[in-house]
Amino acid sequence: MSFRGVLVPVATPFTADLAPDKGKFIALCKAFLAQGVAGLAIFGTTSEANSISGDERMRLLEQLVASGVPAEKLMPGTGGCSITEAVVLTRHAVRQGCGGVLLLPPFFYKGVSDDGIFAFVEHIIQDVSEDGLKIYLYHIPPMAQVGFSVELVGRLHGAYPDTVVGLKDSSGDWSNTEALIKAYPQMKIFPGSEIFLLDALRAGGAGCITATANLNARMISASYKCWQEPGADARQQTITKIRKAVQTIGPLVPVIKSYLALKTGDPGWSVVRPPLIAMPEDVVVELDKELTGLGYEFPGVT
Amino acid sequence: MSFRGVLVPVATPFTADLAPDKGKFIALCKAFLAQGVAGLAIFGTTSEANSISGDERMRLLEQLVASGVPAEKLMPGTGGCSITEAVVLTRHAVRQGCGGVLLLPPFFYKGVSDDGIFAFVEHIIQDVSEDGLKIYLYHIPPMAQVGFSVELVGRLHGAYPDTVVGLKDSSGDWSNTEALIKAYPQMKIFPGSEIFLLDALRAGGAGCITATANLNARMISASYKCWQEPGADARQQTITKIRKAVQTIGPLVPVIKSYLALKTGDPGWSVVRPPLIAMPEDVVVELDKELTGLGYEFPGVT
Fold it and tell me: A93-144 pLDDT, tens per residue?
């Protein structure tokens, strides 16, 4: 099985003292599956994964699987700056039965070579040494700076065609996503925003993995499922407008979490770990007016 | 006690299978102390700290202290992208008796606010809650992108004057280092390169913490100790020329490690963890010719 469709990089709820809120997290994951998404890309950028230690992530994953969420629907982020940490997290995810992992490149050193990133990924594959390992490369140059070039993706997929099976492209650059889809039709390529969903599907892409699915999973999933039905362009326009309203008003992660707090009436949703900072309420009240005008309906978190 | 003088961000030797080489690491640390440095900033950028897991770093630190190296001479890097990991590493370093810690800002999210970085550091200080904690902020925008602005340094030092006691400035921008020294004369400010050593000392800085001390600890330490003696400018010129030769020929960490391999005749020194890549031998042979012409003498690693 490989992933196809809309995946949510699930926001990680925290308690007031900044511990992961297991109960809210599990409920949120189940809500998204009920809203029709194909999978859960937990521990991504929107999940504040790099603000959560490896041990905390492994415990949360175990609790999520134990709660009955099917592990094959999970694509946890398991990257890190060190091969040792990435190996531990990746092996753990495979042994939990996860359908795939989303792998960041090592992102501390800048200006590193493709050879160095290739060696990093290869080392993880060889050290983890599990047949069930399915890697989705995570290209997000706005945050990681270090990225997977189109050529490097080809080298990795060529060397490990059954393991390096897909990519999430959060470059925000459609021409890069399109180049990847055209170059590697066997791979599952996901743009990192629903703005490119219809374009990606028409070009041969696999769906999208998008932060704003935390707010709009039902509508984005419907757009995916009906993309060959009449009205696809109109549906795309609506989800694009909603996405743009959200991403324009402030930094994506705090906006999403503070908006969840507004819509649920539970201020606990707005808690982020430093260095992120929660949004002032007036900003999300403003966003709410704008979204309502666009026909948006909050699908809930439980 | 606070640090003053030349500190080495000690290169971390690895075995052929990329495990930390404890024996070589301890010998190297002892060699630098014998060569006259004031302290060891282990687990910095040159140490490939972010390529080494937290558990590996804690074990190495324990082994180093157990080997008889005085803990008060150690300033380990204990930063990370997550408060949970930074708290564990920082508390561990304090309990091992380290004279200070070098704290990176969280470096995954970009474009974060000073308020967010302040909250990150404050959370660590409050959570660690150890009187012995002495934080040296680690400003290295070429790698971390996220940095400590001059104003933010003042806010942190103002709020925690007995805890936030110093800073390493690896911006490479002397005007920034000078602004910090002038603004916060009570703090120990270390430029991240010996190129600025004499300028820093004359302005009121505390010394330097520099990658190339891995190759040239004796000469840089002598420049520090005799900075008010005749010939200081000439000595500064020599160490500056040597530094520039090293940093111009290739990426600093692989150049330093491959050069150690050349000078010791032990190829094991050249091993780096991905995403870094060892330097070709001809590059360091070329460097060796250049350094010899500048009057450089290799002080040894044992």
Answer: 999 999 999 999 999 999 999 999 999 999 999 999 999 999 999 999 999 9
Predicted TM-score of the model (pTM): 0.97
Residue A136: in which H helix or E strand, if any?
A: strand A135-139
pLDDT recorded at residue A1: 76
Q: What residue of A is the nearest CA neighbor of B277?
A: A116
Of A45, A55, A275, the CB nearest to B106: A275
Sign of the alpha-carbon torsion through A129, A130, A135, A141: negative
Q: Domain residues of chain A, as ranges? A: 5-224
d(CA A189, CA A207): 7
Record: contact A54-B85, CB cut-off 8 A: yes
Nearest CA in chain B to A119: B274
Q: Which among A108, A119, A274 has CB closest to B107? A: A108
d(CA A46, CA A243): 14
Structure letter (DSSP) for residue A81: S
Quick: pLDDT tens for A210-223.
999 999 999 999 99
- Are B53 and A112 a contacting pair at CB < 8 A? no
Confirm whether the ipTM is greater than 0.90: yes
Query: Per-residue pLDDT tens for B191-234?
Result: 999 999 999 999 999 999 999 999 999 999 999 999 999 999 99
* Residue whose C-alpha is closest to residue B210's, from B153, B155, B172: B172
Run of H or E residues at A164: strand A164-169
Hey, what CATH topology would domain B5-232 get? TIM Barrel (3.20.20)
pLDDT digits (tens, 9 = 90+) for B249-273: 999 999 999 999 999 999 999 999 9
- Which CATH homologous superfamily contains domain A5-224? Aldolase class I (3.20.20.70)
Give the minimum alpha-carbon distance from B10 to chain A in angstroms, rounded to a whole number: 17
What are B's interface residues with A at a Cβ cutoff of 8 A? 18, 45, 50-56, 81-85, 88, 105-113, 115-117, 119-120, 123, 142-146, 251, 253, 273-277
